[in-house]
Amino acid sequence: MSRKEALKLVxxxxxxxxxxxxxxxxxxxxxxxxxxxNLSWQGTAAAxxxxxxxxxxxxxxxxxxxxxxxxxLPFLTLLRLYFVGLFxxxxxxxxxxxxxxxAWEATKETREVPEAIGSVxxxxxxxxxxxxxxxxxxxxxxxxxxxxAKMVALFLxxxxxMVALFLIPKVAEGIVGKALPNRLATLxxxxxxxxxxxxxxxxxxxxxxxVLVMSVIFQVCVAGVNAAIFQAIGAHVSxxxxxxxxxxxxxxxxxxxxxxxxxxxxxAYWYFFSQVGVGQAEAVATSLLFFVIVxxxxxxxxxLFVFRRKRxxxx
Length: 315
Fold this sequence. Notes:
The protein is mostly helical. It has one domain. Helix content is about 75%, strand content about 0%. It is built from 14 helices and no strands. It has helices at about 5-25, 30-35, 40-70, 75-90, 95-110, 115-140, 145-165, 170-180, 190-205, 205-235, 240-255, 265-275, 280-300, 300-305.
């Protein structure tokens, strides 16, 4: 790790610590503990089931991209690689570190570095657009005011801009360069080829729309996890409100300003769900439980990575 990277890591850690300290300063820890220790099994079970369903959908839509690029992989292989990526997303200090691991592991299956990494980046970008679209789905089902609608529109613009920026060569090469393993970071030809793979994927209209629809379904499942957790802790939050607020929360949590979104995510939960009467303890409890449940669901990724079938990265 370079000195610059180490400094960034320290800054992110400090941001996370400061935000968590501010959140917990006025938090009723007794109420938080009560919420965490008195979960209903129905809501908790539903949350776990929805996480596994979301993982299956993610693996499937990623497979559609690889298939369209003439590098199809069996669904069980895709599922294995997705569990591995999810596990590393939870243990590495960035929210997308697991994607780099998933991409590199996929090269051992496809034997094509640009295609494997390009498929992961493409799936992430399309999923980003789905964040904004998903928030729109909940608006007709609540009594929303103009400020809520404007906020949803703003996040949709931000999410769409993520894809638009990728069409700018220098920006695109920077994004893909971060997904490449360190030993490949200097291979400009690989980066250029990967960027081209992503551009061609995004320009495939039928594929883009299909993956986008599946990504929206995935986001609804993620929102459903939050709704189930709220039910488990005894808070009353509708699925529609979760569909609106969850994508915006995770858009904010993706900002590279803290360790794995800690502090940022909890603050966002509190801010958005307070709009519908959720207290600080309930919001923080839901955020923490979401992280724990996803973390538990990702645990199969560890043995799947350690005992993976040994294959060379290139033919």
